[in-house]
TrEMBL record:
Enzyme kind, highest EC tier: transferase
Official protein name in the record: Xyloglucan endotransglucosylase/hydrolase
Active site: 123 (nucleophile), 127 (proton donor)
Compositionally biased intervals (Basic residues): 329-344
Biological role stated in the UniProt entry: Catalyzes xyloglucan endohydrolysis (XEH) and/or endotransglycosylation (XET). Cleaves and religates xyloglucan polymers, an essential constituent of the primary cell wall, and thereby participates in cell wall construction of growing tissues.
Location(s) in or outside the cell: Secreted, Cell wall; Secreted, Extracellular space, Apoplast
Species annotation: Malus baccata (Siberian crab apple)
């Protein structure tokens, strides 16, 4: 039923008007095999898999216990964490982001083990980076392995919908062989493990984290626009939480491959573990239309691309040597970049056309 309702919403909305990418995505989700498994995910109540992390007063459980609201005000942000650490898994939630003026805000959905492995932590990020009123949210994916924080692997994007108007599902698949980031049922990024990555591929047990916090120093246009608490409280909503992982003790003596072998097989047989030709077509269209930064094409940072990078000639031609789009595609009237910010800074960019 959720899938039919979402399809009906898209068909009736203005967002499809003369937009070929949205039409392709809609056909794949509604009539193809892209979304079937996602509409049948096993979800769990909040208290069954998660505990508050910080800002308890700003964490509000839903009446049915299946969701939670995270608030940011001038006193504190808030967040929650999974009750267990996991050796690989599928982590997913329906999320609705704050609206209006959201500059400087970071809403993060990510896995990490920094509290256990302080100097050699692993991390997989989906970070939503707010914006000034009237401009769309932007977001990035990133990954670190074995404390490789000096080798950020950011990709940054816009969306083909307004994430403040309705819930949309965001997911991270992490297996011993690959990582896939999803928006709804569309894969937006795939990282395939290879020997050259070595310990840069996340491999230690991780917890799932979800937070909202003040990231004024970097989140919006490299820190140009700060959080304005006149618009507080900022509210991010989460529901339909799915967590399919192999619980693990980070200091256990049993090798992860042995302890979680059965679960690895289970993950590999799930629909979301395979990027079908239809899904890959949707992913390519998303990346062509909405990705505006890729570290793989940023030769200023990486004269030699990191080993997991797969060069796509069409992408390389668009991003040239900086990894950033300056013109063309849906990114019109883009501001010039004055300086190269640190790894987690977000390049200037304008409204996404057609939203």
């Amino acid at each position: 039923m959720e899938g039919l309702q979402r399809c009906r919403y898209w068909f009736n909305g203005v967002s499809l008007f003369f937009h070929p990418l949205r039409l392709v995505l809609l056909i794949l989700v509604c009539f193809g095999n892209v979304g079937a498994a996602f509409y049948n995910l096993t979800t769990i109540p909040f208290d069954q898999g998660y505990i508050p992390l910080f800002g308890d007063g700003n964490l509000v459980r839903s009446p049915d216990g299946k969701g939670v609201r995270l608030l940011l005000d001038r006193f504190t942000g808030s967040g929650f964490i999974s009750s267990n650490l996991y050796n690989h898994g599928f982590f997913s939630a329906n999320i609705k982001l704050p609206s209006d003026y959201t500059a400087g805000i970071c809403v993060a959905f990510y896995t990490s083990n920094a509290d256990v492995f302080e100097k050699s932590h692993d991390e997989l990020d989906i970070e939503f980076l707010g914006n000034t009123e009237g401009k769309p949210w932007r977001f990035q994916t990133n990954l670190y392995g074995n404390g490789s924080t000096n080798r950020g692997r950011e990709e940054r994007y816009r969306l083909w919908f307004d994430p403040t108007k309705d819930f949309h599902r965001y997911s991270i698949l992490w297996t011993p062989e690959k990582i896939i980031f999803y928006v709804d049922e569309v894969p937006i990024r795939e990282v395939v493990r290879n020997e050259e990555m070595g310990a840069d591929y996340p491999s230690k047990p991780m917890s799932l984290y979800t937070t909202i916090w003040d990231a004024s120093s970097w989140a919006t246009s490299g820190g140009k626009y700060k959080v304005n608490y006149k618009y507080a409280p900022f509210v991010a909503e989460f529901k339909d939480l799915a967590l399919d992982g192999c619980p693990a003790d980070p200091i256990q003596q049993i090798p992860p491959a042995e302890a979680c072998a059965e679960h690895y097989t289970h993950l590999a047989t799930q629909d979301y573990s395979v990027i079908s030709p239809q899904r890959r077509a949707a992913m390519n269209r998303f990346r062509q239309r909405y990705m505006y930064y890729s570290y793989c094409y940023d030769s200023l940072r990486y004269p030699v691309p990191p080993p997991e990078c797969v060069t796509v000639p069409a992408e390389k031609a668009r991003f040239k040597d900086t990894g950033r789009l300056k013109f063309g595609g849906s990114h019109k009237r883009q501001s010039k970049r004055k300086s190269h910010k640190r790894n987690r800074a977000v390049p200037n960019s304008d409204n996404a056309a057609d939203i």
